[in-house]
Amino acid sequence: MKGKTWLFWGGLIAAAGGVLFQTSYDVQDLEDKLAGLNRKIVTEQESIQVLKAEWSYLNDPTKLEELATAHLALQPIEARQFLALDTIPMRPAPAPDAVPAPVPGRGLTPVPPPMAGLAAPQLASARVPSARVPMEAALEKAPVITPASLPVPAPVRAAPIKPSALVPASARAPALPPSPPAPAAATPGKLAPNAPLPSLNRPTDVASRPMPAPIKLTPVKGQAYTPKPTDSLGLLVARLGANQ
Amino acid sequence: MTQPPPYGQAPQDTQPPPASRPRTTLAVAMEQSRYRLMVTAAVVTAVFSAISVKLVAATVFVPAGEPRQHHALEVDGTTTNRADILDRNGNLLATSLVTQSLYADPKLVSRPEEAARKLVSALPELDYKDVYAKLSGDKRFVWLKRNLSPKQQYAVHRLGIPGVSFEREERRFFPAGNLTSHVVGFTGVDNNGLSGLEQSFNKRLTEDPATPLQLSIDLRLQHVLKKELAATVQEFSAIGAAGIIFDVRSGEVMAMTSLPDFDPQDPTGLDPDTLFNRATLGVYEMGSTFKIFNSALAFESGKIKVSDYFDAIHPIKIGRFTINEYHGLGRALTVAEVFQHSSNLGSVRMVQQVGIPAQKAFMAKMGFTRPTALELPENGWPLVPNPWREVNSMTISFGHGISVSPMHTVTAAASVINGGVMHQPTLIKRAPGAEVPGEQVVSRQTSEMMRRMFRFVVTEGTGKSAGVKGYVVGGKTGTADKQKGRHYQKNSRMSSFLGAFPMNDPRYIVYVLVDEPKATAKTYGYATGGWVAAPAVGRIIKQVGPLLNVPIQDEASPEILNATFLNAAGSTNWVAPPHPPATATTAKGSTVASFPPPAKQQR
């Protein structure tokens, strides 16, 4: 009996000791892991800091401007390129069952539709107020932006306000050929086909320029760029190279 | 047998009772050891129970255990000991990068000449003699080189020189470089701020390294400002320039530049002029720009209306001085014309009518008697005449005899046009929607009239070249002769322009000051504010307007003209021209009652 009791307690103590040692080693392992993770976090944070610094360094407006003037055909934004939202006319309400009412461009006397004898005039005149009001009102609010010296373009059906009328004079589209009156003969109930705008196919300024010479990417390795120790970029590049 | 003694008396000469046997030595010893055992047991029990109580308390009730060796780091934390500095859009202006520095313990270096030779081969920029002297010295610690790059560290590490080791250090890095050199400042080799905000916020930056310090500066504006200033300096062969872009509603400094500037990465060995911040530390006689405050003073006094005439023909003699016009018109001028043509004589006559005490009080209210509240350590004290005599009063009316910094001028001018509220300037970004502290210094009516005067100078006065279509620019030119010793010099001057936009509801001030511009053939021999600084301000506004989200307005529209119109006779009533040109449709609208009524006549 006595021997069994000893055995029981001895076994319990041994088991407890074993579990304790196991736990202790586990904890040590975890501590080591944590220390490793902490080191990694610190390294990552330092790398992030370096990357942030380099990002800011490369985003220096002075450098960006030099690069932009060397490689892009873009110019600084100017005041005339801005429009208030309420000066942009709404698209005229579509008339599903009628020939769209001819809404003349700004500064034009209303031109009667060429096919005056048909039923279209009544429909058109009925629609004129609703179609006219937002556009004309909007256009009256934007007197400066639409230069009065624009050549009066010939009216094109279903394109009452051409985009070219809204862009400033320097980007003037070529004068549109007078649209043939034929589309007006379309039967009521069908929309007149849009006259193709020649300005859409015109190559833009940027596209017509010769492509800038591609930047030769020199690998940042070895002799390509040897950072001077006093050079701040050198410091960065060196650090980045070492972090890889 | 005798009687036992009475109770309480000790038995005397009696036999011990027969029941008790005589105490032997053995019995005594037994009793003694029993007592000792009991005491020992009690002590042992007490100690062991105390231990068990402590054991239970320590193991069950207090989760003690060993102190943790490692604690998890915060992912968003920082490893550096100095906070970053950001611009208002979050671009880095200053940050700390971790580097390694090389030091040696000469006691542990066994062969100094060999170690020095190896070190110089790995780090060619070191000097052999210098390194050798350091390594063979008696000290226990010498720096060999600070802030090595990792490659250099690797090279030195490979040499395996005993006694040479590395120390983790931080290095301050300024990605924006020269662009913000005078605002951010720089730090020394031990990362202590030595100038600019690095100095004034040194404590804040080191105490709270995890939170970056966000400035009111906008890097893009800073770039535009510096570019145009540099172009102006080059065009007119000036010796320096200063520029400020200022938010008149919040007092935030959006951009501030002083030329020449420097690389904050390497600020050693520069001449003091390069480190000098002309925008805040330099105090200058501002010249005609001060007519802004003279006119505001005149309106505030209530004695002078914008349509009053003042003699601008006869020079004023006082003491040994004679005050004359720069380019006289030879007739009496209204207050509007005095401002438009920048007439010195008219300004003097105006202040004569107002009086010296009122002028003195007004200039103090404008903040011209003490440094501004700007957070920079480089904050100049104005030079104010003491005593404030009549001749000082006269010269101050056109901006001579009192020297203030450009920041003073801009802050005061902002309060004159923003509705009369003085906001102290700041370089720290204000939280959006936060209340801006301010103090009413001039009345709304005066401020409203000053806006018209500003606009008048650009539409028809000396500042025409600052005009930018769509931004309703207004402003005031300023040209001051520089004083060398006791005399004013004819051909060295400070030319400035203080521009604001949009004048119907001012948002920003753009100020440019050019130090000693030389006239060129293009400016017909003029180097005044209108020829030098005003075009620069125009170019700046043209570029920063879109960045600042200022809406484009039609300058010929009746709303704008009603708000900003002023003519030479001092009338603020704008009348639609009888034959409106191209903008016929809008001009017709001016009769509609929904437009704000024309502003009230000034008193």
From TrEMBL, chain B:
Chief subcellular location: membrane
Biological process annotations from GO: cell wall organization
Compositional bias segments (type: Pro residues): 1-20
Domain of life: Bacteria
Residue spans crossing the bilayer: 37-62
InterPro entries according to UniProt: Beta-lactam/transpept (IPR050515), Beta-lactam/transpept-like (IPR012338), PBP_dimer (IPR005311), PBP_dimer_sf (IPR036138), PCN-bd_Tpept (IPR001460)
Region: Disordered, residue numbers: 1-22, 577-603
GO MF annotation list: carboxypeptidase activity; penicillin binding
Keywords: Carboxypeptidase, Hydrolase, Membrane, Protease, Transmembrane, Transmembrane helix
Cellular location(s): Membrane
Boundaries of every Penicillin-binding protein transpeptidase domain copy: 244-540
Gene Ontology annotations for the cellular component aspect, listed alphabetically: plasma membrane
Penicillin-binding protein dimerisation domain span: 81-190
Xref: Pfam families: PBP_dimer (PF03717), Transpeptidase (PF00905)
PANTHER family registered for this protein in UniProt: PEPTIDOGLYCAN D,D-TRANSPEPTIDASE, PEPTIDOGLYCAN D,D-TRANSPEPTIDASE FTSI
Protein's name in the database: Penicillin-binding protein 2
Species for this entry: Azospirillum doebereinerae
